[in-house]
Write a structure and sequence with these properties.
Number of strands: 0
Shape: elongated
Number of domains: 1
Helix content: over 70%
Number of helices: 7
Radius of gyration: 24 Å
Length: 245
């Protein structure tokens, strides 16, 4: 099992344990909160009692990791979206569809970077009273530098477009013109429809391959980062390793 998936398993297993520890039928308060949150019902959605320090600790680790997990899977989702155009016979432009998902991809990579850096910092703070703190602090600094270095190219591309214009490139500009003229030009320009169909397929394939390659590298990065975090956060029984002075 890879580092990212192994780290994720810590929280999946703990969530299962918590559900098993709480007998929903014998604990009306817990059952009510669980039902309200699950079904969106009115009523309390948090337990009335104060959380224990261990529960607060777990919640901070789990919440931050869930955000990272969702960001990464959003990148994988965009790879799927790029391979399909489910809006035939609508006003949605194929060119704008490609540009929209490319722009979203760049934004999601930036969000992932920010969430990773934030999470690494949180882990460092949670273990600041641990006897391993000095080593943990150095590991956190290394992880932040690693993420910044690996994602720098994508982040710089995203930053340039955010501050100047929406995402575009020479291929998208050409596609946009082809699509417009094939729909709104005279009869002599209708032939462009075939050129557009060919170019669109070729350019979409290029974008999808680029995203696939980026996602593969991002997964390698995540595995490396969370292999290191796993040693900090988990014990030999794959349970949360709480700080020890």
């Amino acid at each position: 099992m890879t580092g990212f998936d192994k780290y994720s398993e810590i929280f999946t297993n703990r969530a299962k344990e918590l559900l098993e520890e709480e007998d929903l039928q014998k604990n009306p308060e817990y059952y009510g909160v669980f039902k309200n949150r699950l079904l969106g019902l009115k009523g309390p959605k948090q337990l009335g009692r104060k959380l224990t320090p261990a529960e607060v600790f777990f919640l901070k680790l789990n919440t931050g990791f869930n955000e990272i997990h969702n960001s990464y899977y959003s990148l994988l989702d965009i790879e799927v979206y790029m391979g399909r155009f489910p809006y035939s016979n609508t006003r949605v432009s194929k060119t704008r569809y490609l540009a929209y998902h490319m722009e979203n991809y760049l934004n999601e990579v930036y969000i992932l970077e920010q969430r990773l850096e934030s999470y690494f910092t949180i882990v460092g703070r949670l273990y600041r009273n641990d006897r391993r703190h000095q080593g943990i602090r150095k590991s956190i600094e290394t992880l932040i530098s690693l993420v910044q270095e690996i994602l720098k190219g994508v982040i710089d591309t995203r930053g340039a477009h955010v501050h100047r214009m929406r995402f575009t490139d020479e291929d998208l500009d050409r596609l946009d013109l082809q699509e417009f003229l094939s729909k709104h030009g005279g009869d002599e320009l209708k032939v462009l429809k075939n050129f557009f169909k060919f170019d669109y397929g070729r350019i979409r394939k290029r974008y999808k391959q680029m995203i696939n390659k980026n996602n593969e590298q991002i997964k390698i990065m995540l595995d490396a980062c969370f292999d290191i975090l796993y040693e900090i956060v988990a014990d030999e029984k794959r349970q949360i390793k709480y700080p020890k002075a």
